[in-house]
Amino acid sequence: MSAFDDLLAFQRQTEALSSVAERLGWDQETVMPRGATEQRAEEMAAMEAVLHERRTDPRLGEWLEQAEPQDAEDQRILELISRDFRRASRVPARLATEIARQTSLAQGVWADARANDAPDDFLPVLSDILMLKREEASALADGGDLYDALLDDYEPGASQAQIAALFDSMRPRLVTLREDVLGAEFQPSALSGHFAQETQLRLARSCATAFGYDWARGRMDIAVHPFSSGRWQDSRITTRVVETDPFNCIYSTIHEVGHSSYEQGIDDDYAFTPLGRGVSMGAHESQSRIYENQIGRGAAFTGWLYQRMSDAFDGLSIPDAEGFYATVNRVTPGYIRTEADEVQYNLHIMLRFDLERDLISGRLDTVDLVEAWNARFLRDFGIAVDRPANGVLQDVHWAVGLFGYFPTYALGNVYAGCLNKAMAEAVPDLDRYLAQGDATPAVEWLRENMQRHGGLYPPRDLIEDATGSDVSEAPLLDYLEEKFSGIYRL
Amino acid sequence: MSAFDDLLAFQRQTEALSSVAERLGWDQETVMPRGATEQRAEEMAAMEAVLHERRTDPRLGEWLEQAEPQDAEDQRILELISRDFRRASRVPARLATEIARQTSLAQGVWADARANDAPDDFLPVLSDILMLKREEASALADGGDLYDALLDDYEPGASQAQIAALFDSMRPRLVTLREDVLGAEFQPSALSGHFAQETQLRLARSCATAFGYDWARGRMDIAVHPFSSGRWQDSRITTRVVETDPFNCIYSTIHEVGHSSYEQGIDDDYAFTPLGRGVSMGAHESQSRIYENQIGRGAAFTGWLYQRMSDAFDGLSIPDAEGFYATVNRVTPGYIRTEADEVQYNLHIMLRFDLERDLISGRLDTVDLVEAWNARFLRDFGIAVDRPANGVLQDVHWAVGLFGYFPTYALGNVYAGCLNKAMAEAVPDLDRYLAQGDATPAVEWLRENMQRHGGLYPPRDLIEDATGSDVSEAPLLDYLEEKFSGIYRL
């Protein structure tokens, strides 16, 4: 066995263990008995202790020094392991374990606080998590910027300066578009009615199938906060059901199918190597968003969906497919990020990005967070937050320590804009398939040009290779302006 | 920190990891996508590699030498860790990992072979598993008896000689009782009808609740082969549904509640120590069997169940509670162990015990197993096996490497007989509660006298302390003869 082989065998086991830890997270959010929180926190901490020990194993350093890559794939594998080794080695085992334990516990505290609209039950816990994450960030940053150090875990190579500049250039066009749309004479109707859970789930399943989701290597469950989980042969999705709003379930499902499909699309040969996962959260989100929005909320696919939903629910309050397309894409004031329309979604991210940078830097204390959130929300969205569950308590991310994660959602939208432009040129007859409820030509193009590569290329390179152009926010903004000008007859 | 504290902290993490591995097993048998078999095998192997490394960690030897127990609990903890350390150290890591991987894969192969009635698809895999288990047994036995070495994992202190003697003394009375019962003039009616899955599951849930199952620390799912899984705050049960036979679902559920209830009943202070689990498979089975049979199939509880089932299914084909009690306890020829009545159940175990001893010793080869099974079944039960799914393919145990496990089912029945005799004396008005669908006075007696102790006492000591008598098969056989003489009017 060469040093490279030894390293890969060791890494393979680490990847398998990390996949187990992820499965445990899925279990906690879908099926775990509610009384098992302490036990699960111990289990997560034990898994993290094992994983951290392996990620900092001194043999890794030796193997990395001795290993001789045979090709570009080997080279990239070494890069990724080396990066992970460097990062993990900076974080003390005690801290890594403690973060796993506390975030597992905090998840339940957050869910209860959200259900009871009681931020005071949650903020002290958030304060502890924040302290741990700041300590982790200090260790990782090694004198550099704390937020950048955290961001780097989700979007390698990105920086807050770069993202702040991106957001600065996106905001004016988004705000103008929102004004035009909200002030337009034509306003799409809302969908009204009662939509039974079982029928919604059946529809959601057929949408997942329309996007080529491989049910033999996945499954769908209900979760408070939809997410996807897992890789290779076991990539699961979750969804939620609101009986007055079937779009919530359907588009949560298509979104999560985007994530899962990415994992399912990665070259099998990369399984349980560092190449065997989506390369970044931004790259991941590009898939979930292009599935959900550019494809799933496009005129062709919603034409098919209109028929399916009319059949399933025995008629709809919207009289035709054209009106239905406008309804699906309706822009309205709203509190909730995950339910936001395409025009406003990124404005939600900008709010979180600024607040979490302030939390990490220490400029903002958790005791002032509710006030800061509400003030900022009023400024950015023109409406006052009515209750904490619609404000600072709406997202699980901070509870589970995901600081630096939110901006990858907006990056994903930008990447999706780039991919969509290239895909439209490469697959000119796509709408013909989508109109029949078949999104697989789009999935195939994305699979061929992006998904199959897994972690082989850095995120920006990956998108630029797939599209043949530099990453830019322009395609996304052009697409939004064109789409919503059409719908709103601007 | 003393050596004892260090040891306990290390062990606590090992217990948490072992609980994770068990949860992964639950996932595989209930919710895992069918295409994830290879991935799951890798994950199980990786977990086993970690667990084996910890169980054989040289520091354990040092701590065990230096640790100073303060009381009997500490002493027992040291005994149990030391026992596990000695056993684990005899098994090479490669072998332990390979068994985890192959048994995870074999489970799917077995399930397919059983579904397709195709033993030839499964026997080569069984042959590989058997080879690995024989290798493990040799390592564990250290020159002693191979089967005893395996048995010791499930029932510490038991030996095949002792069990063979027990079975020899049980068989004649069981065979005579069966003859009398099958030849009796009075024969209870079968229950006929169609019983909808949802209604069965609702009934099964209310039965679990009647036995005090703590739903906040458990849940119920469907599995091909019902089992219970987990400990402390997360002990889950599974059941199955046959729409022509509601007793299958109801009594599988009560049986698994017995197992889960044992885990739920262990002193919280023992959580994630070696005392925090049921002490042996025999002790475990004593709980599942006494819940299922002595309590669940008794006249008092079935009186309540009769009303509940009549209401749930809008009438039953049995006209009264007395007839229903006889129907529940009906003795008929049948192939399937898990569906066997109390009279014949242990005869099924004896068949498996003899065959698996022959497999482990090498007297029987897997290529001859179907023939050997069928011949033995004809001799012991007087009927010819009609298809492999009703014969050698009916149980998952050998596929997942559980050789030496089956006899603990019969031991559990014997223990349950002892416990039932003592409980009847200690809780004389139990039937009054059971008649109202409340089994908690029985559960409380078992909890107080047995369950709460977890691993604190060796299995026989535990039963003898709880009952104040030596373990003997007599109470079980007396109970069976009295019960079935009554039902069959002998």
Summary tags:
homodimer, EC 3.4.17.19 (chains A, B), Neurolysin, domain 3, 2 domains, 3-stranded mixed β-sheet, protease (chains A, B), carboxypeptidase activity (chains A, B), globular, Metal-dependent carboxypeptidase (chains A, B), 490 residues, carboxypeptidase (chains A, B), mainly alpha
Task: Give your account of this protein's structure.
By secondary structure, the first copy, chain A, is an all-alpha fold. The first copy, chain A, folds into two domains: 3-144, no CATH class; 160-487, Neurolysin, domain 3, CATH 1.10.1370.30. Chain A has helices at 3-30, 37-55, 58-66, 72-90, 93-116, 119-141, 146-154, 160-182, 197-210, 246-265, 281-295, 299-312, 321-328, 342-361, 369-381, 407-426, 430-434, 440-449, 459-467, 474-487, and strands spanning 220-222, 228-231, 234-239. The first copy, chain A, has a three-stranded mixed β-sheet with strand order 1-3-2. In chain A, a hairpin with a 2-residue loop joins strand 2 (228-231) and strand 3. In chain A, helix 6 (119-141) crosses helix 7 (146-154). Chain A is globular. The mean pLDDT of chain A is 97.
Could you say which overall geometry of chain A the principal axes of the C-alpha atoms support?
Answer: globular
Structural class of chain A: mainly alpha
Briefly, what CATH class of the largest domain in chain A? Mainly Alpha
The main sheet of chain A comes to:
3 strands, mixed
**What would you say the CATH architecture of the largest domain in chain A is?**
Orthogonal Bundle
Mean pLDDT of chain A: 97
Q: Helix proportion of residues of chain A, in percent? A: 55-70%
The CATH topology assignment of the largest domain in chain A is Neurolysin, domain 3
Number of domains of chain A: 2
Low-confidence stretches of chain A: none
How many helical stretches of chain A? 20
Beta-strand fraction estimate of chain A = under 5%
Strand element count of chain A: 3
**Strand order in space, largest sheet of chain A:** 1-3-2
